[in-house]
Every structure is written in C-alpha cells, then in structure tokens.
Specification:
The complex is a heterodimer. By secondary structure, chain A is of the alpha/beta class. Helix content of chain A is 40%, strand content 20%. In chain A, the strands form two sheets. Chain A has a seven-stranded mixed sheet with strand order 2-1-3-4-6-5-10, with helices on both faces. In chain A, strand 11, helix 11 and strand 12 form a beta-alpha-beta unit. In chain A, helix 1 crosses helix 8, helix 9 packs across helix 13 and helix 10 packs across helix 11. Chain A is globular. By secondary structure, chain B is α/β, with parallel strands linked by helices. In chain B, helix 1 crosses helix 3, helix 1 packs across helix 4 and helix 5 packs parallel to helix 6. The longest helix of chain B has 22 residues. The chains are: A alpha/beta, B alpha/beta. At the A-B interface, helix 3 and helix 5 of A face helix 5 and helix 6 of B.
Chain lengths: 310, 274
C-alpha cells in the first residue's frame, strides 16, 4: 500500500486497483464523482461508473438493483446524504434483503466536514446505522486504513458502510499495516490502568495525548477501533476487562457511535466507568485543526479531560 | 400460449383467489390488488420470460410490484404459475411464520425479485436492474407496476430521471391509474392527473390504455419493445376493486376484509366454489 493524500483518494485508488485485479466493483455516483476523487476512475473505466445525478435515494436503490443482478456496487457520497436522506433505502432495500452493496460516507465528523459547516459535517451516521441489522461498519482512522477497508468491504458478503473524511486526515498507520479483523489495534501501551478507545480521524490527537500523559507517569494505553459492532469483539472486551477506567474519543456525537458501543460492551462484560469524549452539539465552519481544537480535541484538552476523571 | 379468453378467465380466477386470501387471512388490501389483476395476469401468463423451476435464473425478466400492498394478486399469480411446487390453497397471508408477508420480500417468497411496499422505490430499483442488464449484455426486460398515488413520492422522479438519462429501453413501467390513494381520490388529494405528459416531459415513451383489456396490455408491450432508446410507461386506466361490484371505485376497500355474506357474493360474481 502506498501513501494517499486523503481517504477519498484512497477510495478511488482501491476501486481502480480492484478493477485491474478483475473484481466486479462498480461506482454509483449521486453526482459525487468529483467529491469521491473518482473522475480518473470514471474516465478509465466508464462501464464501471453509474451516474444517477443529485439523487441519493435513487443512488441507493439503483445500487440495490445492480446488486440483485450480481454486481458489487459502491455508493460513495457525503455521509449524511446516505445515512440520513437515503436511510430508509439503506435499511429496507439493502440491509433487509441482505444485498451486496457497499457505502462510503465522506465528510464524516467535524474534521471531515470542517469548513463546509453543519450541512456537510456528519456526526450522526454511526448512530443511524448501528440500529439497522446486517450492516458491517468500518471506521478507518486514516487514508491507508481506508484503502484497506474498501478492499475488505468488497470481500464481505452483504452491506458494508465505510466512514471516510475529506483530506484533512493525518496518517497514523504505515504502509505495511493491515485492516484489523479483530476490530481493534493497540497503538500505545503505557500500562493497562486506563484504556482509551479512539475511532476515526482524531486518532493522531489521542496518541499525542497519551504520550503527554505517559510523561506524567500515567498508566495508559490507546486502542484504535476500526469496526463497530463487529461479530467478534473479544479483543476489545479483553482491553476493557484489564482496565480500571475506560475512555472513548470520537469525532461523532457521543450517542450512537464508539462511546455507546464501548459502554455497551463494558456494561455487558466488565462493568466499570466509561467516559465518552465527543460531540454533544452541532459543529461550525472552520479549518480542520482549529475547529477540532475548539471542540475540545486538542491533545492538551484531551489530557485534561482524562486527568479530571482519574 | 394461453389465448385471450383463457387469460381473461385466469384473471377472474386470480381475482377470486386474491380476495379469498384476504378473507381467510383476515387482513390485506383487496381494492389495490383487483385494480392490477389484468396487468399481472398478462405479465405472468403471456409476456414475461420466466422459469418457475429456476426463480433466480439470471436471464429472466424481472418484476417489481412497487405498490407492494397489492401483493395478494402477486402471490396468487406466483402460485398459479408454479413457483411454490404444489399449489397452495391457504396462504396464511400476514400470519406469523408465513412466507406471504404483509408486503413482498425477496429471498422469503420464491419468485419475488425485489422487496417492496415502501412506496416510491420500485422505479429506481428497477433502473438498477435495467442498467445491470445492459452492463451484463443480457436481453431481459424489467417490468414494474406503480400506483398513481405513489407518483407523489419524490424518489419516483429521481428514478424516472435516471431511467431516461441511461436510455433504459429494457424497462417498462405500468402506472395503475385508478385515481385512488389511501386517503381519498388522487386528484382531490394532491395528485395531478396529467401522468402521460409528466412522463413525456422526462423523455419517456408513453402509451395510455385500458388497464383491464388484456389484448391492449399485450399490444402496448409489443409497441414498447419496438421503441428503442427510451424507457417505457404504460399508463393504465383502471378501476380500483375491479371485478367485485361493491368494491369497484369504493375506497373503503383500499384495505378491508369481506364478511361471510360478502364473500358469498364475491364467489358468485367471480365463479368460485365453496
């Protein structure tokens, strides 16, 4: 795997590579061919590109029709236009009949949507999909992980949702990484008293916070969760069980996403305090870094939030 | 091949079985089902290239009942065609554990190509099937029945737009134009009556016919198949509840279950036996 300038470019690269490998992947675009950085893909493989215009509900339905005839479509566009505007189509015509449709939702989170503002920032997508049976939910933390997630989604039978950004993602993983089927990767291990679970494009900030806390001799580890509600969460449960206190950090509302998922696992398997760090309000326009800092995601603020609870 | 008389007799029989299914199941939508009985009969027993022994045959014509609440007529047609092996006499419609769900479900009922019932979605899903046909270089056609009230859904027009843009001439949409919807008459609710003009303005090939005249349905499909380059709409003037005198144009039968006495009358009208 090579480096990409962002998760959208990683998506386009994975789609291109898969066609070259002889796969049956198609890109269904509700006028998102530019947003998904797929104009070169569409030019090179015109018969793998299905344009439906600015019509997200139709994009999901067309994909359902394609999948019912044995093709493997990827619908890619803004996360909320899929999971909210076309939510019912994703539920009733893809998940219910278990059709083999893949979704890539971009501009996820504050960092993903940044300057566009609330209409194009989506921090509810995981909450929406978490209550629909049959969805596999991938939350890659950077572009390399997104490339791997797109390729893994193809191999899974049934609906998959991949949460992606818009180019402001900081690379955390190296080129030799894998997309972990366990749903969790331990990236810092300075002790097991505190475990911080992170998901999405704030992972670099969480790692920096852990490094700062280590310097203060805090016994802490950081794990990246790349699959939500996966079939086998035993590795996540193991980390929860070993810890005295658990934190979650996500660029999503604290309800319905990573925080809810980890809280549920803790309640059912190893009850203890779980503190959720994330959004509780709508966002604002602004450059990604300043915006994330202003909503409490700077490493220093994360350090303070963690120290306040221990 | 069944002749016209045979098809008309079969449509009458399927109407009876439809109402029987609802009467025995004590729930369902008889009016919307009777409205499309002749279209469904023509499709399943004359027009469509299908194989009940191989319901997922990849070269088969596809069918979507976008107005999925009319499914009792669909289930009777599949039964008569032989999709369920031995003919089913009691469908247990809408009963717990029945394969005949309240609205059609693919992979639950053999022969159902797509889940439906949430209104407005059939045309864009069918467009996906038609695009797949062209991509896979298959010669199958996609047949869809939509209600006239259903045309009020926005996603219908997204699908109509997609089908025209992709020149999906392998797609034929029947509009069940009975001028009724759940809450009352379509033209008095919010619907505009110029269905033909609206499809034409989206660059569709459009015909208007009597939706209870099977010979006209057959002819319209032939004309559509010989009109390349555009998706096809066949606007069918129909009567909701057609075939049962007290149900015809009576929207109280949008959803409802006949009493024993009413069912006796239905059997007399449709030639049934107790």
């Amino acid at each position: 795997v090579k480096k990409f300038s962002g998760t959208r470019e990683a998506f386009a690269a994975a789609m291109t590579d898969m066609v070259r490998e002889g796969k049956k992947n198609y890109f269904v675009s509700p006028d998102s061919v530019g947003a998904m950085r797929s104009i070169p893909f569409a030019k090179e493989f015109p018969d793998r590109y299905v344009e439906v215009g600015i019509a997200e509900q139709a994009s999901v339905n067309v994909a359902a029709g394609l999948a019912s005839c044995g093709l493997i479509p990827f619908v890619g566009t803004y996360a909320g236009f899929l999971t909210m505007r076309a939510c019912e189509q994703m539920r009733t015509f893809v998940a219910y009949p278990n059709l083999n449709v893949k979704f890539v939702g971009i501009n996820a989170g504050l960092v993903g949507g940044e300057r566009e503002g609330v209409t194009h920032q989506f921090y509810e997508d995981l909450g929406v999909l978490s209550s629909i049976p049959g969805f596999t939910i991938f939350t890659p933390a950077d572009a390399i992980q997104t490339y791997l997630a797109v390729k893994m989604a193809y191999e899974i039978e049934g609906p998959v949702y991949i949460r992606a950004g818009s180019g402001r993602e900081i690379d955390v993983y190296d080129e030799n990484s894998v997309f972990n089927k366990n749903g969790v990767t331990l990236l810092r291990n300075y002790g097991s008293d505190i475990v911080v679970f992170a998901s999405g494009f704030i992972l670099d900030r969480v790692l920096k916070a852990a490094d700062l806390l280590k310097d203060e001799n805090v016994n802490i580890s950081v794990a990246d969760v790349n699959i939500l509600h996966g079939k086998n969460p035993s590795k996540i449960i193991e980390l929860i069980t070993k810890a005295k206190v658990v934190f979650t950090v996500e660029d999503h509302n604290i309800n319905g996403g990573l925080g809810s998922y980890i809280s549920q696992l803790a309640c059912e398997h190893s009850p203890k305090n779980v503190y959720r760090i994330g959004l509780t309000t709508f966002g604002k326009s602004g450059p990604a870094k300043e915006l994330a800092d202003s909503f409490g995601y700077s490493p220093e603020q994360l350090v303070n939030k963690i120290k306040n609870k221990i | 091949m069944m002749d016209l008389n045979g098809l008309n007799e079969l449509a009458k029989h399927l109407r009876l079985e439809t109402v029987r299914m609802i009467y025995e199941g004590k729930d369902g939508h008889p009016g919307p089902a009777l409205s499309i009985a002749d279209i469904v009969t023509a499709l399943y027993f004359d027009i469509m290239n299908i194989n009940p022994q191989n319901p997922t045959w990849e070269d088969r014509d596809r069918f979507i009942l976008s107005k999925g609440h009319a499914c009792p007529i669909y289930y009777t047609a599949l039964n008569e065609k032989g999709y369920f092996g031995d003919k089913i006499s009691n469908f247990n419609l809408r009963a717990l554990g029945s394969i005949f769900q309240g609205h059609p479900v693919m992979r639950t009922t053999p022969g159902v190509d797509m889940t439906s019932g949430s209104l407005g979605n059939g045309i864009s899903i069918g467009a996906g099937m038609a695009i797949a046909g062209k991509l896979n270089k298959k010669s199958y056609n996609v047949y869809i029945i939509v209600g006239d009230g259903e045309l009020q859904e926005g996603v219908v027009w997204e699908g109509i737009n997609v089908a025209a843009a992709h020149k999906l001439d392998n797609m034929i949409v029947f509009v069940d134009d009975n001028n009724w919807q759940s809450g009352g008459a379509v033209d008095k609710t919010i619907g505009s009556r110029n269905i033909k003009e609206r499809f034409e303005s989206f660059c569709w090939d459009v015909q208007e016919i009597d939706g209870h005249d099977i010979s006209m349905i057959q002819k319209a499909v032939k004309v559509a198949k010989n009109t390349p380059g555009k998706p096809h709409a066949i606007v069918c003037k129909t009567i909701k509840g057609k075939g049962v005198d007290f149900m015809e144009n009576n929207n109280a039968w949008h959803k409802g279950v006949p009493t024993d006495a009413e069912f006796e009358s239905i059997m007399a009208q449709l030639g049934g036996r107790v």
